[in-house]
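Input sequence (236 aa), recorded before submission:
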Amino acid sequence: MLAFITAGITLEPGDVVSTGTPAGIGPMCSGDTVEVEIEGIGVLRNHIVYEVDTSWCENGDVIRGTINLVTNGGELEAVGAALDGCAAALETVEREMLLTTAEGDGLERIEALLARRPVTSVLERRRAALAALLRIGGDSFTLSAINDNLAGCGLNAVASETEEPGVVEVRFPEVPGIPDGFAEMRAIIEDILPCHLEIRYVYWYITWAMLQARFQTWGEIESLGLSWSALEKLVR
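Predicted structure, token format:
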């Protein structure tokens, strides 16, 4: 066939030769097996069974009529399930390869590349923390970069300059008083900030003016049954 084609034209790499059924190929007969193979996935086998007289297969005469083709349903179902599994795996890979959609393995692989890991386990905060960490340049010590790094570690902390050279203040704007887990936060903060800086931690508590604006009498306050420590943090 190729000799016949190339007698008139030149085949180039990538050309496709489309043909019909080559001569010499007979009809399918009962008991035949048709196989289709995809490398890396497997082989699909269909066993042929005719429910009419198959004597015509011996002499080449074609019998007109209705022919019911019965295939091996079990094998079809098994191969179909395998292909469904491939589709599910591809969906998982597509989801986990993007930081904005990753939920498990994708986030863990990103964290494995970083020197610090977010301290939050909340999915959306974890994604935002990793995004902040990925924005950090290795040689950047600007306040913006430092605060990105703090946010990247999942810390609700903000560093700011003071009027004193070499001194920075760290505040916890969303948390009144000393935040829970402060010891762990402090270790991370002091690991992030350059070692030549002095760090001052600033906390905020409820003020007398705020108490007077919210309560008319001490009786109202005492009715809440709060400890002094809890009252100090009653800023909302």
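Checked by second reader. The radius of gyration is 37 Å.
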